[in-house]
Known about the structure:
By secondary structure, the protein is of the alpha+beta class. About 65% of the residues lie in helices and about 10% in strands. It has helices at about 10-25, 45-55, 65-80, 90-100, 105-115, 120-135, 140-150, 155-165, 170-185, and strands at about 1-5, 30, 35-40, 60. It is globular and about 55 Å long.
Amino acid sequence: MKLYIKNMVCIRCKMVVKLELEKLGLHFTTVELGEVEITDKISKDQLNNLDVALKMTGLELIDDNKKILVEKIKTIIIELIHYNDEQIKINLSDYLSEKLNHNYTYLSNLFSEYKGTTIEQFYLSNKIEKVKELLVYDELNLTEIAWKLHYSSVSHLSNQFKKMTGLTPSHFKNLKNNRRAALGSH
Length: 186
């Protein structure tokens, strides 16, 4: 039986879900972002207990097909940006349509209706969050970050970053460094 879980965005979320399933004595074959495959029959009480436990961690079971589809869109985008170094060979709209077996216009309208933002906006904000994360880690320079996140150029990344955050990537990085220095001086 498949269960769908809202707000699963990272590896830690998967660990939390596994832990809650184990606490309830539920056996599973897979726990992926947004989706769990349970091997047992699950009672209404167990389902309710799982939902309560998940809500306490910021997660939530979902059973509405439209909400499930919206979560799948989010999960695909998050996995693409945060957990996959390979660039998709087709544009995002075709990729989502192919993966989810739905017309992109339908997916786009549904996503906007439930999330109050467009798929494109969600995709771009996740890319910018990843850029911020990589800037803070300070392991890659801007050229390497642009390449890693499949920007056509450093200038494209910088323009998009400035448009979405109001800061240049180097200004953002300096703010982080200044805050660290200020914290260390007390």
